[in-house]
Design goal:
Elements (H helix, E strand, L loop, with lengths): L1 E2 L2 H15 L3 H19 L6 E6 L3 H15 L4 E6 L7 H15 L4 E5 L2 H12 L1 E7 L11 H13 L3 E4 L36 E5 L11 H5 L1 E5 L5 H4 L6 E3 L2 H7 L14 E5 L6 H13 L4 E7 L3 H7 L4 E5 L12 H8 L4 E4 L7 H13 L4 E3 L2 H8 L1 H9 L6 E2 L3 H8 L3 H6 L1 H11 L3 E4 L5 E3 L5 E3 L12 H14 L4 H23 L6 H17 L7 E2 L1
Parallel strand pairs: 2-3, 2-5, 3-4, 5-6, 6-7, 7-8, 8-19, 9-18, 10-11, 10-13, 11-12, 13-14, 14-15, 15-16
Antiparallel strand pairs: 1-9, 16-17, 17-18
Helix pairs in contact: 2-3, 3-4, 5-6, 9-20, 10-19, 10-21, 12-13, 14-16, 19-20, 19-21, 20-21
């Protein structure tokens, strides 16, 4: 599914009107009507009134349409317009005037809020509400929120009622996920905090296509459950190749996964090679090996320094091990590259870096091994730190590959690759991912909430699965093994990264559901990988956005 910025969404809607003759007022009608259906389901079995808090723009117009449809169903609806009727224009004004006519017949109440006394009326109505509809600001919001709008947002959050936000929670920048209230814009807001900088939605119903800012933090905290609804936009516009961002869906992952014929054997599903390990860090490459096996590779081998090989033979049963020449510090020796390249000829993909160490000899090994490697490769952990120490050399090596490598940094490793502070990477995750993917000519997987995948040609994928339970040592190694396994099974680097990230996050969601996110271990995620694959293949509902 395509993922858009506000500017891209406006272009889609403009083309719907100019190229297909779909008027803006028809799209507003469809948006409000579909949102009303969501509101009815949210109110199922509850008594009390629906309070619609509307702004002066198109988002307010969507709210007016919703109010009309709910009133037509017999719901008690109070509408509060923040501003004066004379400030309304176009489609929003048209739908407001219809509501005013309905108010004459007591089907709905309509009030304007222009001062503190209006806010007091809103507060009293919110106390009697069973559902609040946030239609204050849509995707076109600019600048800081102050004054009456900020007061209304504060009252909505303070009321503690279920909230349905239309298109985007008011106060969240739909393109960046940043908060637009002046006093909270710089904060990272966590679910337990009672910040008033944006409406904290129970459900956000977004129209046509999901907006990028709904998945970027801190805005994602305020989104609640996301539902994407069809408002009648032509499918060709929604799938326009010019839209370069994608929200990963289970349907797309299912279509990408390799077939497993009934007459297959272990050689049918590839041989994955995982390289890494050093004293105290054998668990990293062991987890990667187990994950590669659980993700479906026919054979898996882990290659480690010679003296650590007995440890891996005890740790692993189904995964094979391979001893490598080592330094006095028991890290991989530079001279191990040539024999390992010869051995790798029997494999289909390589993942390396987990627990490998960052001494100079490791950098020389990595240089020689990558320069001679013609297989698909995943680079993680210490491999990335070694590359960051000699960026010009490794950029040249990666640029000469027949197909892009897959880099899987966490924010700290990403900061090293970019020579930037970690907080700068976190604040501009999308831009950072695109920059590194292009400058390193690789598929870039920036791990975190939410994981971003960028390609050298500018495509971007955002993953909706995963939870805080994945914030524990070893889960990144599991992801390395998962992607390497999919590469070994014949998937392209982009598809392997997309599917691997989605399934890894879903396995984490399944593990959290079974055991709870606190105290979840990387091995719990490994065990859930086959179940995650089966869930996607069977079409069962999975974590992430919901499409209506």
């Amino acid at each position: 599914m395509r993922l858009v910025t506000p500017a891209e969404m406006r272009l889609v809607e403009r083309r719907a009107e100019t190229d297909f003759g779909l008027s803006s007022i028809l799209l507003m009608e469809n948006a409000g009507a579909r949102a009303a259906e969501v509101a009815v389901r949210m109110r199922s079995g509850s008594a009390g009134r629906v309070v619609v808090v509307a702004g002066k723009g198109a988002n307010g117009g969507d709210g007016f349409v919703l109010a009309r449809h709910l009133a037509g169903r017999g719901e008690t609806v109070d509408v509060f317009l923040l501003g004066r009727e004379t400030e309304l224009r176009g489609d929003a004004l048209t739908n407001f005037l219809i509501l005013k006519k309905m108010a004459e017949n007591n089907a709905v109440t309509v009030r304007t809020v222009t001062d503190d006394s209006g806010l007091a009326m809103l507060e009293r109505s919110l106390e009697r509400a069973s559902l609040v509809v946030d239609a204050l600001f849509g995707t076109g919001l600019r600048g800081s929120i102050t004054g009456l709008p900020l007061g209304a947002i504060t009252l909505i959050n303070r009321a503690g009622r279920p909230v349905l936000s239309l298109d985007v929670p008011s106060g969240v920048d739909a393109g960046t996920g940043q908060l637009l209230a002046a006093d909270t814009a710089a904060q990272v807001v966590h679910p337990g905090e009672a910040a008033a900088g944006a409406v904290r939605a129970t459900v956000t119903v977004t129209f046509g296509l999901p907006k990028l800012g709904l998945f970027l933090y801190p805005g994602a905290v305020f989104t609640g459950e996301l539902r994407v609804v069809d408002i009648g936009l032509p499918p060709s516009l929604l799938a326009d190749p010019a839209l370069k961002m994608h929200l990963i869906t289970p349907d797309e992952v299912r279509a990408a996964l390799p077939l497993r014929p009934v007459d297959a054997h272990k050689g049918s599903f590839g041989h994955a090679l995982l390289v890494g390990g050093s004293p105290g860090l054998t668990g990293a490459v062991a987890l990667a090996g187990e994950a590669a096996l659980r993700m479906g590779a026919g054979k898996v081998t882990v290659a480690v320094p010679r003296s650590l090989n007995p440890i891996l033979e005890v740790k692993l049963t189904e995964v094979m091990s391979l001893p490598l020449a080592e330094t006095e510090a028991q890290t991989i020796e530079a001279g191990a590259a040539e024999p390992l390249l010869a051995w790798a000829g029997r494999c289909q993909a390589v993942g390396l870096g987990g627990g490998m160490g960052t001494d100079e000899g490791g950098g020389d090994f990595l240089r020689d091994f990558l320069a001679g490697l013609n297989l698909p490769v995943v680079l993680d952990a210490d491999a990335l730190r070694l590359m960051a120490a000699r960026p010009e050399l490794f950029r040249e090596i990666l640029a000469g590959r027949r197909q892009p490598a897959v880099l899987t940094p966490h924010p700290g490793e990403m900061a090293a690759l970019m020579s930037l502070p970690v907080d700068a990477v976190e604040r501009y995750r999308v831009d950072a991912a695109r920059e590194v993917a292009q400058s390193w000519r690789s598929v870039l997987v920036l791990k975190g909430a939410h994981t971003v995948i960028a390609t050298p040609d500018g495509e971007l994928f955002l993953n909706p699965t995963g939870n805080p339970g994945l914030a524990t040592g070893g889960t990144g190694d599991v992801l390395t093994g998962a992607i390497t396994s999919l590469l070994a099974q014949g998937m392209t680097p982009v598809r392997a990264a997309v599917a691997g990230v989605y399934l890894h996050g879903l396995a984490g969601d399944l593990a959290a559901k079974e055991r709870g996110p606190v105290g979840m271990a990387a091995s719990d995620v490994v065990r859930q990988l086959p179940r995650a694959i089966q869930r996607v293949l069977s079409g069962e509902p999975a974590a992430g956005e919901q499409e209506e």
